[in-house]
Amino acid sequence: MGRLQKTLLLLTVAAIPAAALCYLAGLPRPDAPVEAAALAAASQPCFTAGPVTYRMAAPGMAAPDFRVKIGDADPELRIALVDRVDDADFALVDDGDAAGACMSAGRIKTVQLVGEASAADVTVSLSREGTGAELKLFVYSARFSHDAAAALFAAMRLDQRASKLAQFR
After folding, report:
1. Pairing state of beta strands 52-56 and 46-49?
2. pLDDT tens digits, residue range 13-27?
3. Taking the mean position of all CA atoms in its chain, how far away is CA 48?
4. Phi and psi (nearest 5°) for 103?
5. CA distance 141 to 36
6. By three-state DSSP, how is residue 138 classified?
7. Could you tell me if 50 and 36 are in contact, meaning their C-beta atoms sit under 8 angstroms apart?
């Protein structure tokens, strides 16, 4: 099974529970009218992984769940940006339609990109060279910048590791 097939299978497996949750929770369809608060939330890029939706925090948000710094100074995660999905370990692809994108029946955790001088939960290094990268990321999106995609992935990875550690305590 090729890398593209594995990636598509993983995305499908992640999407089915999320769709079932939306259906069972009676959430509005993406084409149904939504309120202003829902539209504001949908304008921030997000990614759902299992029961958790990770959403980029609105500018100026006081207390995001995760703060991510993009920089080369002592990164905890090194990500290489690739131009072909076949070369990627993780792919983030969307159709550009933001309506209803961040509606979730599960938990929503916010992610904020912070500057060099700010404290961060995780620092991520982004590069075009794969040398030393722990992960190869492919992004094809009208809504996600490379920085936002890397920040969402880093927050998801950090949160899932913390959850696994908590299970063993």
Report:
1. antiparallel
2. 555 655 544 444 444
3. 7
4. -75, 130
5. 24
6. strand
7. no
Task: Please state, in angstroms and rounded to a whole number, the distance separating the CA atoms of residues 169 and 66.
Answer: 22
> Which residue, among 35, 166, 163, 69, has the nearest Cα to 107 in the 3D structure?
163
Residues in Cβ contact with 115 at an 8 Å cutoff, skipping those fewer than 6 apart: 69
Q: Tokens 């929503």 label which residue?
A: 108
Closest CA to 57 of 108, 8, 95, 6: 108
pLDDT tens digits along 51-104: 888 899 987 777 899 999 998 888 999 999 999 999 999 888 876 665 566 677
**Chain-centre distance for alpha carbon 114:** 16
**Rounded Cα gap, residues 30 and 49, in angstroms:** 18
- Phi and psi at residue 70, to the nearest 5°: -100, 115
